[in-house]
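Entry for magnesium ion complex. Fields follow.
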Amino acid sequence: MEPLNTGVIGFDEMLKGGIPKEHIVAVLGSPGTGKSTFALQFIYAGLLKGENCVYLSLEESEDTIVKTASIFGWDLKPYITNKKLVLIRLSTMNIKAAAAWVENDLPRLFKSFNVKRLVIDPITLYEMLYESETLRREHLFNFAEKIREHGITVIMTSETNNINPYNSKYGVIEYIADGVVLLRQVRHNDLQSVATVIEVSKMRRIEHSRDIKPYSITKNGIVVHSEAEVFS
Ligand SMILES: Nc1ncnc2c1ncn2[C@@H]1O[C@H](COP(=O)(O)OP(=O)(O)O)[C@@H](O)[C@H]1O
Ligand SMILES: [Mg+2]
């Protein structure tokens, strides 16, 4: 299966090349762990390879995303102009309209735009639209089916659950996802500092690393220190 590089140095090696094509991958982590950065880096890596990309934000405005990317040295503007990148901010003020957009307009875009990479950051706000776990599962499952018809590789971000920090907020996306990547903050024993670590807890159809590796958010984006051991 053809892997898609994420552009995250050290991480692609953990997956033996990258995310398998057409996988839906959940990136989980508490606020500030770098989920949005990771997602943006994945999109930029696709743009560099000439792939059409869609970044759907349920949190930040288009302008903010372009600005954040430029700080990491990723200039999105030419790709927006050349129609290689569609950047959409969905307002969650009108939740019904937002849900309808995701379920009707987004699949239409898949057809007309030949999308190769899609980011939904964060999927949590979409999940929130549904009151019950049953409805949430049902809608997410149908949505994943639609994505799979179009050969798109997807990153969905989610905050972690307060009670179980290894699970996503609603504990549903891990079931529809082909892969789960966990970003975590760990406090050192001296309680003087916090380290960030990454692990791949699920990645269907490939033999991935099971290691927990430290990573940093640098001026060039996320870098996984694949040679380093965390608990040494
Ligand atoms: N240019 C930068 N250099 C180093 N670290 C940065 C930079 N920009 C952001 N960060 C770090 O990334 C964090 C935010 O990352 P973000 O991807 O928005 O996290 P999340 O989406 O998980 O909330 C900040 O809290 C900061 O620690
Ligand atoms: Mg974020």
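NOTE: The mean pLDDT is 94.
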